[in-house]
Amino acid sequence: QxxxxxxxxxxxxxxxxxxxxxxxxxxxxxSYYWSWIRQPPGEGLEWIGYIYYSGSAxxxxxxxxRVTISVDTSKNQFSLKLSSVTAADxxxxxxxxxxxxxxxxxxxxxxxxxxxxxx
Amino acid sequence: xxVLTQSPATLSLSPGERATLSCRASQSVSxxxxxxxxxxxxxxRLLIYDASNRATGIPARFSGSGSGTDFTLTISSLEPEDFxxxxxxxxxxxxxxxxxxxxxxx
Lengths: 119, 106
Known about the structure:
heterodimer, A: 7-stranded mixed sheet, 51% strand, B: 106 residues, 0% helix
């Protein structure tokens, strides 16, 4: 079955850019929307944005000025870049598959990767 | 932004009891609402999509209902593994999550 795996640095300095990649295995990245979600320590879930395999993306308005999500279909990967990070961006970052643009539900999730923003 | 408010924040029940969790939206989301279960140190797991459809592999004791602004997740008879945090999520405009309900053992 489809599996997702996040990868990237676990420590990022303030003001720098956080970069993460999600690798899709066991299936194709095509024909689905793919999301990034984060969860600060002890808090709830926040959707960051999603991308379609064609490259069309949509972002959380509260993060839109700092976020870029891209896709590489040849590698079956999609990526997150979050610029000008602060301690408030410290969180577990998850990638997930959206069941469909007209469906409410993310049915496959990565295990999550912890990113700490600190000097 | 559509705000989802979950109640109660914490629910204390015993195995075998029935659990009823609520999610209220600040404006109508039609049936575009999902429910997730999250255990400590794990990623969320999709339980219910589009308000009332069980995701693949989810036991029949989990059911979802509602439309518009008021939604309910019901666990008919609690199993020990059901004690966790539950989140609702809507997908109108852009996805947002509720703040979660912690289901704990009484």
